[in-house]
Amino acid sequence: MDTLIKPLQDLIEKFRSLDGVGKKSAMRMAFSVLDMENSDAFDFAQAILDAKTKIGICTVCQNLSSEEICPICSSETRDHSVICVVEDYQAVLALEKVKEFSGVYHVLHGTISPMKGIGPDKLKIKELLNRINNEDIKEVIVATNPTVEGEATAMYISKILKPLEIKVTRIANGLPVGADLEYADEVTLYRALLGRRDI
Amino acid sequence: MDTLIKPLQDLIEKFRSLDGVGKKSAMRMAFSVLDMENSDAFDFAQAILDAKTKIGICTVCQNLSSEEICPICSSETRDHSVICVVEDYQAVLALEKVKEFSGVYHVLHGTISPMKGIGPDKLKIKELLNRINNEDIKEVIVATNPTVEGEATAMYISKILKPLEIKVTRIANGLPVGADLEYADEVTLYRALLGRRDI
Fold it and tell me: Do B94 and B188 have their domain in common?
């Protein structure tokens, strides 16, 4: 026996194609599937298909949604005049956990990245402009990640929104709570100083 | 938005049910599926179903196989009078990699483990006895893992094979190649001393 049996090899390759899964993990997962009850394996396969077919994009905020308009965009208790612009669905989840933001979101589905060949046209920026033109928006909070690409995207958005005379803000940079100055990088420290406030 | 959207939540739970997959990893994998092409996701689902439906057990050695008799058991170049008894398919893969063993295997599908409620009757031990009774077997090498359960299983097998007057051997314990005595545990060192050989 030189190699793995074909259906097992195939399944291992599928697991390996997932983000962050190496050879050993993929094998362990494939064996987990073999150890499953047939019905559980069927449910697993079905869950993959369901995730692809039932999850779409909210026509308003472009966030992942199983409905045409997501629960946040259709909520009457949220402030629809404040839009928080984020990179992805995970960012929405993170911000929703804080339970402090009562506005709505706009999901860009990525950041501008010349290295990966992603220009502004590949992001949901024109959908954002549409919303701003057609709705009564008071503030746009740009909450892309404080990475090179995230900052570039934030800059780009602030520039195209300037002519529209809307308040555009950026989430603060600084030391995370519980951090130690000793271990903070220079850029973070510099920005923490720059963003200092009266106490 | 209090929780994840349902189809995504379902998929994350399926990934979490796999051996060694935590919450964060499961989320990352689920998002990988969402990022896939539809056809890739379909192939993934199909690979899961194929693994469950196309992989059976070799009627001779009980190893995983996509044929009724696995390539090792049907091979004419292997020594069918020497059976190496292992816990699982992974052990067969590991031993095959060494390319030194030319006999055949017998896969127990586990070890005796009173803690998990696994008695000898739940393992493929009677199938092993059948083989020994019906074939011309000269040696049985017990290569279960050197764990408590593996040793107990090895002991059990050697006991039931004793009346049949077959040579039963156990793979050696000792220091792994490249190891350091300083970091070896006492039991391994003790067994390494016990198994010492003339040089």
Answer: yes
B44 → closest Cβ in A25, A42, A48: A48
Claim to verify: residue B180 and residue B144 sit in the same structural domain: yes
Residues 6+ apart with CB under 8 A from B104: B60, B61, B72, B73, B78, B79, B80, B82, B83, B84
Chain A contacts of B92, Cβ < 8 Å?
1
User: Could you tell me if B19 and B117 lie in one domain?
Assistant: no
Q: Does B65 touch chain A (CB under 8 A)?
A: yes
Number of domains chain A is built from: 2
Q: Is the alpha carbon torsion for A74, B34, B25, B22 positive or negative?
A: positive
Is residue B137 within 8 Å of B103, Cβ to Cβ? Answer: no
How far, in Å, CA of B67 to CA of B72, rounded?
A: 11
Do A46 and A84 have their domain in common?
Answer: no
CB contact under 8 Å between A31 and B90, yes or no, is: yes
Tell me the sheet residues that pair with B80. none
Length of chain A: 199
Using CB atoms and an 8 Å cut-off, which of residues 5-24 of chain B contact chain A? 5-8, 10-11, 13-14, 17-21
pTM of the model: 0.77
Look up residue B41 and give its two tokens. 């996701």
pLDDT per residue, tens digit, chain A (199 aa), is 457 889 999 999 999 999 889 999 999 999 999 989 999 999 999 999 999 999 999 999 999 999 999 999 999 999 999 999 999 998 998 889 888 899 999 999 999 998 999 999 999 999 999 999 999 999 999 999 999 999 999 999 999 998 988 999 998 888 888 888 888 888 888 888 888 877 7
Identify the CATH number of the domain in which residue B29 sits.
1.10.8.420
- Within 13 Å, how many C-alpha atoms sit on residue A145's CB side? 13
Whether B31 is in a domain gets the answer yes
Q: Chain A contact for B33, CB < 8 A?
A: yes
